[in-house]
Amino acid sequence: AGDQNLFSSLYPTLSQQLPREPMEWRSFVQFKEELLPKEGNKALLTFPFLHIYWTECCDTEVYKTTVKDDITKWQNVLRAHNSVDWLIVVVESDAKKKNKTNILPRTSIVDKIRNDFCNKQSDRCVVLSDPLKDSSRSQESWNAFLTKLRTLLLMSFTKNLGKFEDDMRTLREKRTEPGWSFCEYFMVQEELAFVFEMLQQFEDALVQYDELDALFSQYVVNFGAGGKCL
């Protein structure tokens, strides 16, 4: 979300440096509310995990009249969908700062954003300094940002994966209740197997299929004994 032109200018470098380890890269998508998970959504691979707002604002008046309101609307949408994994990136450029005269000397835009939106999560607002320059300062800034981004991506994915597994177990525990559908449950656990396959954790993926096979076999036995199947 945020400044799309700014993000587009940084995307080639970002996409080249971020995936340094083997992975299936799903890339970035522009923020849209309809992409956020809805209540009861059983899919794990079809919605964004981490939301990033980009801005290069260094003008306090522009921040107060435009950017602050835009970030507020963005965060309100995330809260409405229980999406708590986000990051605000402030891109700083020495050239851009030199052209501005109404910058408060003691309070930077980064400080304002942290005070207005981050509360105790000050690390959720990071600075990317002169990212398109070929300098040691720029590279240090990139390295710090990429480390933060990888950490947040991993934390978000791990948390969402854990919640998905908890919801799946809750659904499985209801299998003796009227109206429980094996077909619906199969789709949920198969989604988890797909995730492990994507991560190349093939043994974990096979465990999911083995559990489904055992559960289905038990249903067949119950049906043969006069119980209910599917």
TrEMBL record:
Pfam families: TRAPPC10_1st. GO terms for biological process: early endosome to Golgi transport; intra-Golgi vesicle-mediated transport. Residues 1-226 form the TRAPPC10/Trs130 N-terminal domain. GO terms for cellular component: cytosol; TRAPPII protein complex. InterPro entries: TRAPPC10/Trs130 (IPR045126), TRAPPC10/Trs130_N (IPR056913). This is Trafficking protein particle complex subunit 10. It comes from Cuculus canorus (Common cuckoo). The lineage of its organism: Eukaryota, Metazoa, Chordata, Craniata, Vertebrata.
